[in-house]
Each structure stands twice: as C-alpha cells, then as structure tokens.
Write a structure and sequence with these properties.
Blueprint lengths: L1 H23 L13 E3 L5 E3 H6 L3 E7 L6 H16 L7 E7 L7 H10 L6 E4 L3 H10 L14 E5 L4 E5 L5 H11 L1 H4 L23 H8 L18 H4 L2 H9 L1 H6 L3 H9 L12 H18 L12 E2 L7 H4 L4 E6 L6 H15 L8 E6 L7 H8 L6 E5 L2 H11 L3 E5 L5 E5 L3 E4 L5 E5 L5 H12 L3
Parallel strand pairs: 3-4, 4-5, 9-10, 10-11
Antiparallel strand pairs: 1-2, 3-6, 6-7, 8-11, 9-14, 12-13, 14-15
Helix pairs in contact: 3-6, 10-13
Amino acid sequence: MQLAVRTLALALLAAATLSGAAAAGDSRWGKGYVPNHPVEAQDGQSYKFYDDLIQDRIAIVSFIYTSCSEICPIATARLSQLQEKLGEHMGRDVFFYSITVDPEIDTPARMQTYAKTFGAGPGWLFLTGKPEHINEIRYRLGERSRFLGEHRNDLLLSNGLAGQWQRDSAMGDLDRLVLTIQSLNPAAFGKAPLASRPHAQLEAIELTGPPGETLYLKACAGCHSIGEGNRVGPDLAGVSERRRPEWLINFIANPAKVRASKDPIALELAARFPTVRMPSIGVSAREAADLLAYIEARQARTHRHIPLQPLLALTTAQGKPLTAEEIEGRPLAVTFGFTHCPDVCPTTLLDWSNALASLGPDGDRIKVLFVSVDPERDTPAALKSYMASFDPRITALTGSASELAAVAAAFGAHYAKVPGKDGSYTIDHTLKTYILDAQAQMAGASDHATDTQQRHALLKKLTRRE
C-alpha cells in the first residue's frame, strides 16, 4: 500500500508539473528542459531527441520494454490499432515514439523485432540509447519508476508546434483519442473528423454490447483478429473448435500458469509467437467464458454475405461497366483507395500484384478490385494510367459519389475527404482488403500487418480447383 501511495504521489506530481508547464506556455517543456540526447531507432538510425523528434511536430510518446509480459504488449497493440485509424497521417502529421525503460537489454535489433511484431509503419519509432540518456529523458517526461514493473503505461501527447504536452491513455476509446490528437493541430488534419462520433460521446468505451465485447476490444483486439489472420497472436476464428472450452478458459484466465505447467499447447503457442506472450491480466473464469461467447458470435458475423449488386454500378478503367460475369461465382479481393494516395495504396496494389504472381495459374481465378473513393480526380483515364504499374488482373473501378457510398456500405468500409491547404485534399480510408469466397461470403481480410504466408494459404484454399 505504501508503494502504491508513493507511486500515485509521484504520478500526481509529474502530472501537475506537466500541466502547469503547458499552461504557462514557457520554455520549461521546450528546448532546455526536454533533453536533446542522441537516441537510436529500431533501424539503427540516430536522432537528437528534441531537435529531430519533438519540436515542430505532433508526437505520441509511450514507455515500454520488450521483455514485459504484462501491460506493454497490450498497450503497444492498442497503439497499433491507433496507427491504423490515423492512416496516412502517420509519419506526416503524427509520430509515435515507444521508448524503452530497459536500454541495457533493448538493443535496436530487439526493438526492430518488437516493432515488426506490432506492424509498426512509417512514423513509429522504437527508441533506445545509452542508459544515462534514456533515464534522463524518461525522468524529465515524468516516467520516474524505480524498477521495470512500476513504469508508467499512459501516453504523452506532445504538440511541439506550441510547446504543449498532455497525458492520455491508449486503453480507452480510440476514437476519442484520435479526435484529441486531431485537435492538437487541426490545420494539418483538415476539417473532416477521423472519428465518426462526436467528442462528447467518446469519453470511454460504452458497455452497450454483449458480455465479453469490452474485454475483447480493450485487451484482445490489438493482438488478435477474428477471421482476419494472425497478428501479434493467433487468429481467434474457430478457436472454440480447436481447443476444449475448459482449456481456453484456464489459459485466458492465467496463461502464465498454464505455460509454467509445461502444457504442450501453451508451449507450442509460445514457440509460434515468441516475441510477445499473452499476459495475465486478471480475467476471471466467468469473464473468460463471456469472451469466448463473444468470439463465437463475432465469427458468425464475420462470415456474412456481401451483396455484389452495388459493385455492378461502377465503371472500369476502360470506361465500361463492371459485369456480373466478371465477379460472380469466383473469389474476390476488394480494396479501397485513390490514385493520389502517397504510400498505402500503391504499396497495397504492389503487394496484391505479388500475391497474384505467387499463386501461379490459380491467380486467374481470383478477381482483385481496386475501388477508388476519389471520383473527382479518378476518372477512368486516370485510373488506366495509374494501374499500368500493377498486375493487369487488378481491376480499377470508379463511380458517382452515391454509387461509391453504396459499395463502401456493403463492405463496412470507411472513407472521408480531408481538406488541406490551398484547396487541396486527401482521402482518409479503410486500409484493409476484404477477401470473399466464391459465394460472396466474407472469408477474411488483410492489411500491411497480415502475415504473407497465411494470406497465401487462404488464397490457395479459395482458388483451389475441385
């Protein structure tokens, strides 16, 4: 109890110092207070902490260590989800810095492995450095733990443009956090909100869903999917068919205990996913049972039928309507994007070009569709020129605003126009590719974090000749 009180007192003191400095608008939280020590990212590149990473940008700072078996994996997985929500703003308008509190162990190579495990993309650096430098950085930023297990797991939001800092958490509603980040520099994000609900409704994850939903969203979704492939941990689709219910409940409630018993299934999972092991988070047997029930219900919804009729209203890059013969009775892969997209869209299309090539002749059996969400600029002629760089079996589509909205609604995809300076704009959009079987049932999805081999296995299964 004494330790808890002392920790709380330190946290309150740090928070008070933080908010007071930000409110004062002085230089205390600018250069001269925030250290400018050299730090090293997961790729081995060196930076000066303040000059290169803090001033003149929006930064989200977290503290982790790679051998952490409790909150670090969950908090980092939540940042991975936040990264997906921020989309193309990552590395341009927002930067993530996950700073180790164990620099003697966490070399750049270890940080690189950790970063890959969580699908870190552009703008997300995992930082280490000399212990004396890292210790001063974290101390100045309010992370003053005396041993590893005591370290802070909240977030620091830095607005280097205005010299302001504030604390937040990755464990609450991520849509609320997105809006908070967007409010730090509205000019960079434009007027269109990245989250779909008003700020006033986003103070916490609402307990409106079935039992097990909140636990899945807060503690599981960052590391696992249901029917969308492996992430940090295994895909949970069909898990109740592969494992006995009592084993699952025991493992969810206390995975460390099950591993310590030399359980062969637990050891096999640890070998398959060695970077991060499932932590013990104090889940009761009842909560574990509720979680399993929720996974089964979600899995049933995942394999939903997708109406293809909205796609038939769209026009190809050749200026012709998409026909039913082109898409009915065959597997489909449908991704959304636009030709002015700076990185995600061309990377996705190149990735799918490689995926089709890896399938050999079976690649002809799946139809890959690239649906533009930018009808103002992506005319058939513009799409035809753009698609010349990718596999010719990928069909680009455009249409009117209402036609595109109908297609997005059918898949549950999101996109929004984000105005920029001087009348320019970009498009924030769903990053995943939706994969359908020959009966137009949702068979899975993929994105930049999806394991290539697992996706290949799914595509081989869907294109297998009977």
